[in-house]
Specification:
Elements: E1 8-9, E2 12-13, H1 19-43, E3 51-54, E4 69-73, E5 86-91, E6 102-111, E7 117-120, E8 137-145, H2 150-157, H3 160-178, H4 188-195, H5 207-211, H6 214-222, H7 225-246, E9 253-254, E10 283-287, E11 290-293, E12 301-303, E13 305-308, E14 313-315, E15 326-328, H8 331-349, E16 354-355, E17 359-364, E18 367-370, E19 375-384, E20 393-397, E21 400-402, E22 407-411, E23 419-423, E24 427-429, E25 434-441, E26 445-447, E27 452-459, E28 463-466, E29 470-472
Parallel strand pairs: 6-9, 10-13, 10-27, 11-14, 11-28, 12-29, 13-15, 16-18, 17-19, 18-20, 19-21, 19-22, 20-23, 21-24, 23-25, 24-26, 25-27, 26-28, 27-29
Antiparallel strand pairs: 1-2, 3-4, 4-8, 5-6, 5-8, 6-7
Protein name: Signal peptidase I
Region (Disordered): 195-228
InterPro entries: Ice-bd_prot, LexA/Signal_pep-like_sf, Peptidase_S26B
């Protein structure tokens, strides 16, 4: 019997004939097939006239992340405006906070009377500040291929460590896949006939010359040609995929849509509910049970509406204290409470990108921060939008307290309307403290003497009480 054909040589079994190598080769081939398939999905449509772009922004995480590949198709001029669709468009330099022209990926949410379009990112609290014209639209979003553009993204950012790791993993997979053992069945019939002293009928008439022919032996050792072809094809596809992924375009795109197309080719609506105050927008104070001003003749000023629902208790406020209306379980108050609860739920659906520290001070940047513990604002806390006026800050905790004279400030385009504090318990603002943003607490909300909020204070299950404080709706 030719032992080499069964992976056995003079020195024992071949190291490539064992189960570990077989499992490794199976994993390697599966990995190469996966990246080749995703690369094909991302690259092939380009030859059909679509555009492929690697997303550079993390503004829509976790639904869409840097390194995802977006495929857009040209919008036909005779078509109506793709209202509700995601489009890529050129955002001119004068519309960008940093003064640099960008390609943005946002959803068209409305059409103005002059024919321009209103766009917005799905996670942004407000629409984009500058409408766009039809000739600014590059294409309509059709497909999102997750993570496949990461190599190109790493190259663009100069991140050599993850790039080297990925290249090493892919190269190792190619080596393992190429060296995979043959799947050709071992021909046992000839060995069985030889062991029984019976001539194999398949070789009858060949004589000794045929059985001892060097060419026959070498051919058997060489492995099946089909197996070599399979390895060559797999290696070629893997190499092409690597080069294609590394060469994907890296336009400075800002992503703002959340899902890939279905099999029918239509774009799905975002899975995450948009952050929207809705009918609670005009309310400065809103509570489920009661809203009270502890010193009715003190220096309290509420620039906005006050409401309770289903409670009806609003005490200590006069016309000199409130600029808006007072709604005691009216239809308006009930609608406002419903939208406030919906906003709280939407905030809870956002996956945090960072853990919120127990003590907040210094500088924080846009993102979703969360902790299951209490949070205390101490000293000065600066929220830095990095020049993006649509940047959103979400801070989730159990109890939220602001220490005496603590101050939350905004800089570099940050807006109070895009700051959200979500507390699953109570909120306490100590004497002379200042905070910005919309506060949504499940428990009571308390403002001490001299405290100020540029935003809104909502208690979804409790009461709001203030003592000679100021609340300004942004």
């Amino acid at each position: 019997m030719d032992e080499r054909r069964n992976g056995i040589g003079p020195e024992g079994p071949s190291w490539r004939a064992g189960r570990p190598w077989f499992v490794a080769s199976l994993v390697a081939q599966s990995y190469l097939t996966l990246i080749a398939s995703l690369a094909a999905v991302a690259i092939v449509p380009v030859f059909l006239g679509w555009s492929a772009t690697v997303v550079q922004s993390g503004s829509m995480e976790p639904s869409i992340s840097p390194g995802d590949v977006v495929l857009t198709a040209p919008v036909q001029t005779e078509r109506e405006a793709p209202l509700g669709r995601v489009v890529s468009f050129i955002s001119p330099a004068d519309a960008e906070p940093d003064g640099v022209e960008k390609i943005r990926l946002h959803r068209i949410v409305d059409v103005n009377d002059d024919g321009t379009f209103v766009t917005a990112g799905d996670a942004n609290a407000d629409v984009d500040s500058t409408p766009i014209a039809r000739d600014q639209i590059i294409g309509e979003g059709r497909l999102l291929v997750p993570a496949i553009g990461l190599p190109s993204w790493w190259i663009g950012r100069g991140e050599t460590a993850p790039l080297a790791l990925w290249v090493g993993l892919t190269a190792a997979s190619l080596v393992v896949a190429w060296g995979a053992p043959s799947a050709r069945p071992i021909p046992l019939r000839r060995e069985r006939h030889a062991a029984a002293g019976v001539e194999d009928p398949a070789s009858a008439g060949d004589g000794d010359d045929a059985s001892s022919s060097p060419s026959s032996s070498e051919s058997a050792d060489a492995g099946p040609p089909a197996d070599v072809g399979r390895r060559s094809l797999l290696s070629g596809i893997g190499a092409i995929a690597v080069l294609g992924l590394a060469g994907l375009p890296r336009e400075p795109s800002s992503a703002a849509f959340t899902a890939s197309t279905s099999t029918g080719g239509s774009w799905r609506v975002a899975a995450l509910v948009r952050l929207d105050l809705g009918r609670a927008t005009t309310y400065a104070l809103l509570a489920r049970s009661s809203v009270s001003n502890l010193h009715s003749h003190g220096a309290t000023w509420i620039d906005g509406d006050i409401g309770t629902s289903p409670g009806t208790s609003v005490t200590g406020f006069g016309s000199s204290n409130v600029s808006g209306t007072t709604e005691r379980n009216t239809t308006a108050a009930r609608n406002a409470m419903a939208d406030a609860v919906a906003l709280a739920d939407a905030l809870g659906e956002r996956t945090p990108g960072s853990t919120l520290a127990p003590t907040l001070s210094g500088t924080m940047f846009p993102g979703v921060y969360a902790t299951a513990d209490d949070v205390h604002v101490s000293g000065a806390l600066t929220l830095d939008a990095r020049g993006d006026s649509s940047a959103v800050f979400i801070l989730r905790s159990r109890n939220l307290t602001a220490g005496a004279s603590a101050l939350v400030r905004l800089t570099n385009g940050a807006r109070a309307g895009n700051v959200y504090w979500r507390a699953t318990s109570s909120v306490t603002l100590a004497r002379d403290s200042g905070i910005v943003g919309t506060i949504l607490a499940d428990g009571d909300v308390t403002m001490a003497h001299g405290s100020q909020a540029t935003g809104r204070l909502f208690s979804l299950s409790g009461a709001v009480s203030i003592d000679r404080a100021t609340v300004l709706v942004p």
